[in-house]
Amino acid sequence: MSTPHSPLDDPDHSNRLGDRKISRKSLLKAAALAGAAPVLIGGGTALARDNAAAGSARLPLTPECQDGDAVTEEQIEGPYFKPGSPLRTSLVTSGTVGTPLTVSGYVFGRNCAPIPGALLDFWQADNNGNYDNSGYTFRGHQFSDANGGYTLTTIVPGLYPGRTRHIHVKVQAPGQPILTTQLYFPNEPRNATDTIFDPDLVMTVRQVGNGREASFDFVLNVNGTPRPSTSPSGSPTQGSPSPSPSSSGGTTTWKVGASYKVGDQVTYNGVTYVCIQAHTAYAGWEPPNVPALWSRR
After folding, report:
1. How far apart are CA 206 and CA 107, in angstroms?
2. I want to staple 119 with a disulfide (CB 3.0 to 4.6 A). Which of 114, 153, 172, 205 is the partner?
3. Cα separation of 258 and 279, whole Å?
4. Dihedral of alpha carbons 159, 211, 46, 73, sign
5. Which residues are CB-contacts of 135 (< 8 A; sequence separation ≥ 6)?
6. 4: closest CA among 129, 145, 163?
7. Are 185 and 205 in contact (CB under 8 A)?
């Protein structure tokens, strides 16, 4: 665990983040950006993208991550994770209260190649610092696109005792281990007192109108470019697909690591369930615990 300290108390903080974030990979993405550069909150980590957007030339992806693209740090899950979150990229509705926030970025492997079909499962507190433990407000998962990109529409999370502002996330390349971590905001006063805060996990945040835009790239401890499978609806899913047990009318026992499609049937503790959303199973997603994925027959 990193020693907690504030970016405001560390004059070299922006340089260290800059060394980590400003790479040929970042410049490649930045060269594709268009429009005027927005106002930065905290500065430092956004320089690569903004400078490239202002006219820097395109640069090729690096063959290996030897330019400062360290694997994203892990952090504790915390007490408020709930499996089976809805598949969605927006966590807000017309009545949502709070400062609008859009978080976007890419998922890469150690070799700097983008990872399509990576699972990103987000959860956070609401504007008042509360988590929804009975439903799925401010909870949702999505899959990175063909270029490894993702976008989350949400709000700036509220504060609650003992913590600074943060967003929880689990990221998993198809068929690979899960990275559990948290994303932070720059120049938050509580960054200095939060014992979990890690400056390497600070997002780039920009003020855009009445809301904010943030960016963060995940680098997973994965080699190569895993290829996602595709669900019947066209959405990528984790891992390699296994034969559908229900394709021949059969039922199989639920197991961790199996890839399930819509309509597949499994038994768990003697009860039969039908898959209602394509996914790869992992511990904690047992059918009785995830009504968003399984329907009891």
Report:
1. 20
2. 172
3. 9
4. positive
5. none
6. 163
7. yes
Band the pLDDT of 280: cuts 50, 70, 90: confident
99 has which bridge partners? Answer: none
- Residues 52-70 have pLDDT tens digits of 334 433 334 433 344 446 8
**What pLDDT does 194 receive?**
97
3-class DSSP assignment, residue 257:
coil
Q: Where are the beta strands (DSSP E) in the chain?
A: 39-41, 100-108, 119-123, 139-143, 149-155, 166-172, 178-184, 204-208, 211-215, 218-219, 229-230, 236-237, 252-253, 259-260, 265-268, 271-275, 279-280, 294-296
For the chain, the residue count is: 297
AA letter at 165 = R
Q: Model pTM?
A: 0.63
**Single-letter code of the amino acid located at 246:** S
Percent of the chain beyond pLDDT 90? 50
Question: Structure tokens of 278?
Answer: 């394509």
Q: How far apart are CA 134 and CA 120, in angstroms?
A: 21
What's the start-to-end Cα distance of the chain, in Å?
A: 45
Q: How confident is the model at residue 220 (pLDDT cuts 50, 70, 90)?
A: very high
pLDDT, tens digit, for every residue of 85-117?
Answer: 999 999 999 999 999 999 999 999 988 889 998
Q: How far apart are CA 275 and CA 296, in angstroms?
A: 9
Task: Choose the weakest-confidence range: 35-39, 67-71, 151-155, 208-212.
Answer: 35-39
**b/e per residue 233-271 (b: at least 16 CB within 10 A):** eebbbbbebbebbbeeeeebebeeebbbbeebbbebeee
Distance CA 43, CA 196 (A): 22
CB 228, CB 236: distance < 8 Å:
yes
pLDDT band at 283 (very low <50, low <70, confident <90, very high): low
